[in-house]
Amino acid sequence: MSTRKPTLMTTTMKDRAAERNGARRTVYGVRANNKYHEEVRMNGGRGSTEFPFKGGDTYVGEWANNVEEGFGTKTWVKGHKYEGEWMAGMRHGKGTFWVKEGGRLRKQYAGDWQNDQRHGQGIFMMANGDKFEGEWMSNERHGAGVIKYADGSDCIMYDGSWANGKRTGLGVLTMANGDRYEGHWLDDKKEGPGRYFYRSTSKVYEGEWVDDIPKCGEFKEAPPGSFDDFPVGGQADANPFTGAAASNSAGVFALPDLKLIQPDSVVTEAVATIRQQRAKDLGAPGLKVFESNEIQSLKKIFAAYDERDTGFVTCGDLLGLLQAAGVNVTPSTVEDLVLSLEADSATQLTFAEFVDIAALLMDAEGYEPDQSAEFDFGQGDGQDTYM
Predict the structure, then answer these.
(1) Secondary structure (3-state) at 10
(2) What pTM was computed for the model?
(3) pLDDT for 144-181, tens place per residue?
(4) What angle do CA 140, 146, 150 make, to 5 degrees?
(5) Cα–Cα distance measured from residue 122 to residue 135, given in angstroms and rounded to the nearest whole number
(6) Distance from chain centroid for Cα 332
(7) Contact predicate 207/214, CB 8 Å
(8) Span 175-215, pLDDT tens digits
């Protein structure tokens, strides 16, 4: 009876046999046992009751060239778990991640991954009950996204733009008491033009915000239907400042209405100043920042075209305004700008909008004052001149 001799294997053959490729059952990782090495060190190398190694992470799934590649499930020593797609040993593609909390697994994130980071579309569930659904970049909320806050929070939802994990850009924040903010954000704070709706009084503040604080704007009645799509408890709250309760009772002296002279001009000038200060603070590229004397000169130019003190000029006046301000701009450039704004010659402009346009064009054209212009921005003796 013949016996089969064992096949001899070279080192290379053994290495190939040990390579992990394709689908595999559970692969257990090992790691050094610090207790073992500490005991050996303390007793002068005479051994230890501990084992030199202990269990590490585990992985079940597909491999390529000894790294995770394809679909697989990994469980870390601390109990966290990922199930999904892998590439080159990193989470890459679609996948779900759980965290171990209090002896139980809690789903934390489900969505797209790239190079071991949350990247693309995904849903993130926070421990306090908040839930974010939207775009990610390099583990940060970045792009369009909606966060729904947990019950009991002051806020209900934010729907808008994000950058580097913070609310930045256009967005709408809905409060639990029915109030609502619609407007611009920067680094998680209200910044720029925006509207805040007060449900209890049916009022709205519309104006400019700086560092989460309203700086200048108009406080007025909210347009009809402003709260129809945002009910609180299924019903709109009663307004204590309307109806019979707001009527003047006998013996109560009624104060006369206070009115601001040229309110639109005052507000838009303040808005222009705030926006220029913001551009200066942020070092905004592609935008000229005016000094205070230049702002006053622009105000004089604007007033010369706003003969009725309405606080507005038209786009048809824009070329003359810019040329009076010393901007070397062609009619075709102005026409293209008006078209890009989806406006026409009859469209009205505020002073703040005029300053924004002038700042943009002056920087784009490499602004140098036109010596033949009607106004001079602090040339010579440093005084504004009106011709």
Answers:
(1) coil
(2) 0.63
(3) 999 999 999 999 999 999 999 999 999 999 999 999 99
(4) 100
(5) 6
(6) 35
(7) yes
(8) 999 999 999 999 999 998 899 999 999 999 998 898 999 98
Q: What does the DSSP assignment read for 114-175? A: ETTEEEEEEEEE-TTS-EEEEEEETTEEEEEEEEEPPTTSSEEEEEEEEETTEEEEEEEEEE
Distance (Å, rounded) from C-alpha 199 to C-alpha 180?
A: 8
Strand, coil or helix: what is 294? helix
Integer Cα distance of 334 and 316 in angstroms: 10
Handedness of CA 37, 38, 41, 43 (dihedral sign): negative
pLDDT tens profile 56-65: 889 999 999 8
Residue at 3: amino acid letter:
T
Token digits of residue 74: 């990994």
Is there a contact between 180 and 174 (Cβ–Cβ < 8 Å)?
yes
Instruction: Give the model's pLDDT for residue 236.
Output: 37
Alpha carbons 227 and 224: distance in angstroms, whole number: 8
How far apart CA 326 and CA 362 sit, in angstroms, is 9
The H-assigned helical ranges of the chain are: 11-18, 34-42, 263-282, 292-305, 318-324, 331-340, 351-364
pLDDT beyond 90 at 135: yes
Kindly report each contact of residues 170-178 with a partner whose C-beta sits within 8 Å and lies 24 or more positions away, as own/partner.
174/230, 176/232, 177/232, 178/227, 178/230, 178/231, 178/232, 178/236, 178/237
Rounded to a whole number of angstroms, the CA Rg of the chain reads 33
**How many CB atoms sit inside 10 A of residue 358's CB?**
25
Mean pLDDT of the chain: 78
| 313-314/213-221 β-pairing | unpaired
pLDDT higher than 90, residue 83: yes
Quote the tokens at residue 164.
Answer: 């580097």
CB 23 within 8 A of CB 61: yes
Question: Under a CB-based contact definition with an 8 Å cutoff, are residues 210 and 274 in contact?
Answer: yes
Cross-strand pairs, 91: 86
> Which residue is listed with tokens 């299924």?
234
Which two tokens mark 303? Answer: 């007033």
Q: To 10 degrees, what angle do helices 351-364 and 292-305 make? A: 120
Contact 77, 53 (CB under 8 A): no
Q: How far apart are CA 244 and CA 224, in angstroms?
A: 19
